[in-house]
Amino acid sequence: MTFFNYSVPPLRRKQLNLEVQDLEGLWQVKFPLGKERSYSTFYTCLDRACLMWSLLLIPMFGTAQFLPVSWMLQAGLWSALSLVGTVAMVSWTYCWVKKERLTWVLYGWVILMLLGLLLTDLGILLGWAKLLANLCPLWLGLSGIGYWGTGFAVRSRALLSASFFHLLGILIWPYIGGWSFLFTGAVMVFSLLVLAQLQWDMQHAAAVRDISCSTGGFSSGTGPPPTAINLNRYPSSIHCLVSSED
User: Fold this and answer.
1) Cα–chain center distance at 152
2) pLDDT at res. 242
3) Minimal CB count within 10 Å: which of 51, 96, 180, 210?
4) Which residue from 196, 183, 166 is spatially nearest to 14, judged by alpha carbons?
5) 115 within some domain
6) Entry pTM
7) Residue 62 domain-assigned?
């Protein structure tokens, strides 16, 4: 077996056939497009975490770039918001990483987040000019490290590419001028949205022997559950967020 799964592209449209462990906390979203057509997609617990962070980062970097809000106030607001996001991320993804035997990856992301918050807040409170002048490469670097570690853990070319994308952002950042916060936020949000909207390559680290009842319960007790499930066959197994016309 090769380190990466070259039988699938790094990024592709989301497939209906999912690994059983990916059904944990799955959300399906459907929007009507006229009377006979609709747009449908789904979000795994990992997708939801990416979406959440992208939504949190937009006001953080947007405020720093465009609004005359004091650094002290921003430090308090964004630290509180980031802690809430970290707790939500752990809550949503812990079951998945535990089944995949990748809890260290989740803990690693938490450590990176807390380290970034600590350095940012200390820089603001103590007036460390050199640190404040390099907040953008700091966060790009921490995110890049997280993607790099996760990419090797799950053997994903897409996540490793995201890591290199952040490294490229650090190299370009000195030439951005006065748009550094907007540029940094764009790099981070773009990466998160791409990972949330598309299916990225990975190799699952552990076989699943049971399924949480929150996914609808596919285990019959007569043998091991299947390794992949087609969403069309089990529509009641996921949380559906449907907007439809009468």
Assistant:
1) 16
2) 40
3) 210
4) 196
5) yes
6) 0.81
7) yes
- Please compute the mean of the pLDDT values over residues 220-232 and round it to a whole number: 46
Total domains in the chain come to: 1
Over 70: is that where the pLDDT of 205 sits? no
- Assess if residue 110 is contained within a domain: yes
Q: Tens of pLDDT along 181-198?
A: 999 999 999 999 999 999
Report the alpha-carbon distance of residue 230 to residue 53 in Å, rounded. 28
Give a yes or no: residue 1 inside a domain.
no
Beta strand segments in the chain, E: 11-12, 17-19, 27-33, 37-43, 199-200, 228-230, 239-242
Please provide the size of the chain in residues.
246
Helix pair angle (71-99, 45-66), 10° resolution: 170
**Which amino acid, one-letter code, is at 89?**
M
Question: 173 is written with which tokens?
Answer: 């950042």
Distance CA 187, CA 239 (A): 30
d(CA 19, CA 212): 14
Domain with 203, as residue range(s), is 19-246
* CA max distance for the chain: 64
